Amino acid sequence: MLFKLKFKSEGDYISFKENSSLIKFFVDSDQLKNQLDNFFESLGLKISELQKNNFLDKKNDVLTYYNNEGEPSIIFLKKVKLDKEFNCDFFRNYFAGLIPSLVNKKLKELHIVTPILEPFKNYFDSIDYLIQTILEGIALGNYTFDKYKSDKKNPEDLLVSIHFTDSAIVKRIIESSEKIMSAVYFARDLVNEPSAVLTPLEFARRTKLELQKYGLSVKIFDEKELKKRKMNAILTVGKGSKNKPCMIVIHYKPEIKTRRKIVLVGKGVTYDSGGLSIKPTGSMIDMKADMSGGALVVGVIKAAAQLKMPVELIGIIPAVENMPGGNSYKPGDVIISASGKSIEVKDTDAEGRIILADALYYASQQKPDEIIDFATLTGACAVALGEIAAGLFTSYDELAERLLKAGFKTYERLWRMPFWNDYKSMIKSEIADVANLGPRWGGAITAGKFLEHFVDEKIPWAHIDIAGPAIKHRANNYTHKYDTAFGVRLMIEYLRSL
Ligand code: BES
Ligand code: MG
Ligand code: ZN
């Protein structure tokens, strides 16, 4: 953390003291000059004509005003143009970029004047969500993973005062956003932890330790239990590593009666070296985050429990380390999965779909209303969509619509991919029921089709390939430093929308 943040709902009135900063947005309009004059007058501050004119000038969109020389109070005025460049991530992204720039500025308080919804109606469905994106941006910009740095500083205190007419609304949003963001932080800490520390069993241990705080049941199927349940797909991929595989099963059952039971499945490969079909170094560097799907599931259930959401959730995370070694599984091997279906191994680097076979079969046995799985499954999906969207694969249109909608709202976007049955024939095997590798083209889709073999066809199911957006990338101010734990906000919004 850069700052020790404290959020406060403050109503309209601003008491602007020294060592403070204030941020206000102006929608670019003809009235800008008057608004600017009124604003400075209301704070009792004077601003030079030159500065004012520069801001009003078309080219400038920020005004940074230092309150008296040497005094560390800063006012940021930001002009917002509602043009093609504007999108519903604007405030989140802006604050995520601003927060790191405030370090060492001796600030004690940050005032934020929230805009009114009216001009932004096309981008936000409520003022609540607009304000939520501001709070998320601040929290995301404040996130650090610096536990292995020796020169880290103690975070400074910073009071964040949110100014909005209805302070009760803001108070409520502060409370819920803090729960969501603490889940994002927890998931991020998991994905950024090096695999030497975060082995499958350590992943399970941390998950249990955290989720037990909220009264959730967390079961860990160890090697013995996996054997008993004939989960040979998970066991086989895990064979090459001295770090034993396991499966994490989380259950959130609210006290009130619920209408829906949803299973969330997440790929939990704590390290993917590729196994004997070993990856080149350049492709291996990010593979500590190959458990991002699992981390997302943990995060979503943590937040859902804290928010007391009225939906029953089961989280299933098969956790393994994919390593080459004398005991590794090999191309040419055949695995009898828990479902009884056999899998021909053609490439040990297509390991995610293998472990998910057992997890999805177990998920189906829970007889839920729907199953959604998340996996950093294929480079092919990242090739297709880049890093700013995850691939959505499903035959259920209504489920797809709901997921896509939550994606656009949270800016953790999904893009629906074709999922026709024509792709299914591409992963036929001569010696087993299905092969874990198809032809070169359409690799993200054939991977999805492989998974389909293990899901009960009566249960609505969606597969989400997060290989692109889960890994750190330059798309915006809150994804470029650390692996992202993509999907936690998306799925909280999805669950809220039900
Ligand atoms: N974990 C990788 C996919 C991946 C790639 C995730 C890049 C994040 C960023 C997965 O296990 C894998 O290795 N997939 C192979 C599949 C291939 C062997 C069919 C790939 O994408 O190359
Ligand atoms: Mg792999
Ligand atoms: Zn993988």
Overall outline? elongated
CATH class of the largest domain: Alpha Beta
* Number of helical stretches of at least 4 residues: 16
| CATH H-level homologous superfamily name of the largest domain | Zn peptidases
Global Rg: 25 Å
Q: At CATH's second level, what is the architecture of the largest domain?
A: 3-Layer(aba) Sandwich
How many runs of DSSP E, i.e. beta strands? 18
Bound molecules: ligand BES, magnesium ion, zinc ion
Q: State the CATH topology of the largest domain.
A: Aminopeptidase
Overall number of structural domains: 2
**Averaging pLDDT over every residue, what do you get?**
96
- Based on secondary structure, the structural category is alpha/beta
Ends distance: 33 Å
Strand content: 15-25%
Low-confidence stretches: none
Helix content: 25-40%
- Describe the biggest sheet? 9 strands, mixed
What does this 3D model show about the protein?
This protein has helices at residues 32-43, 49-56, 90-101, 127-142, 167-192, 200-211, 223-228, 232-238, 281-284, 292-306, 352-365, 379-385, 397-410, 443-452, 467-470, 488-496; strands spanning 3-9, 20-27, 62-66, 74-80, 109-113, 156-163, 217-221, 246-252, 261-266, 268-272, 312-322, 334-336, 342-344, 370-375, 389-394, 413-416, 434-435, 461-465. The protein folds into 2 domains: 3-180, Leucine Aminopeptidase, subunit E, domain 1 (3-Layer(aba) Sandwich); 198-497, Aminopeptidase (3-Layer(aba) Sandwich), CATH 3.40.630.10. The chain contains 16 helices and 18 strands. It has 498 residues and is an alpha/beta fold. The structure holds ligand BES, magnesium ion and zinc ion.
